[in-house]
Amino acid sequence: MAGLEDDVFDTECVFATSLYAEGSRWRLGSLDASQLSVLGRPRTVDGAGTPLADLSALDRALLDALVRDGRTRLTELADLTGTSAATARRRLHRLTTAGITAFRCDVAPAVSGLPVSVTFRGHAPANDVNRLHRTFATLPECRLLAAVTGAANVLATYWLRDIGAVQQRETAACAHLPALHITERALGTRTVKRMGHLPDGAGRRTGIRPIRPW
Fold first, then answer.
1. Which tops the pLDDT comparison, 40 or 103?
2. In the prediction, which pLDDT does 1 show?
3. Residue 132 belongs to domain spanning
4. The pLDDT of residue 52 is above 80
5. Is residue 114 in some structural domain?
6. What was the pLDDT predicted at 80?
7. Residues 93, 134: one domain?
8. Residue 175 sits in a domain of what CATH number?
9. Distance between terminal CA atoms of the chain?
10. What does pTM read for this prediction?
11. Which neighbouring-strand residues pair with 184?
């Protein structure tokens, strides 16, 4: 975003070695079992992932369109990519079952009631890291959980109702995994970009700067 570069003092890059939870798997808990069943979910075939290098021009065009609006209808996708709706459906099914793409639904904090974002970074012994999915990820409001490179080998992000819940989540996580040592707590009250989408101060989308990792 224009002007933001003047406010950036430092950057750091870490790599996720294991991803235990992320936005597409997060649930607000507003749907009951029958509603979830109606929505359904594509089945991912383990070990059948398609390398990004094997994506066709049509695959990339479909992804480009969906990055801008994940709710685009098949008929619209067909028009945008110069193919038929049946072909768009088949290609999209292939991309989802292969794990190349996943759909997620984000909501503004005013709707979710979770206006505070906190990211914990910490260190746990290597033998305990694989227990993360039974500790952090099982706690409410966990949006992201990963084992990462660097001195702090654990990273977790929570969406919370208020600042007071930050200490509660940290205490609960450390109680489940006593060997965990939290080294950093980064608190956020506003997100300026999420998955390429630009939200306003209330968290509602106002524009997009598409990501294109493929």
1. 103
2. 45
3. 4-26+106-188
4. no
5. yes
6. 94
7. no
8. 3.30.70.920
9. 22
10. 0.76
11. 121
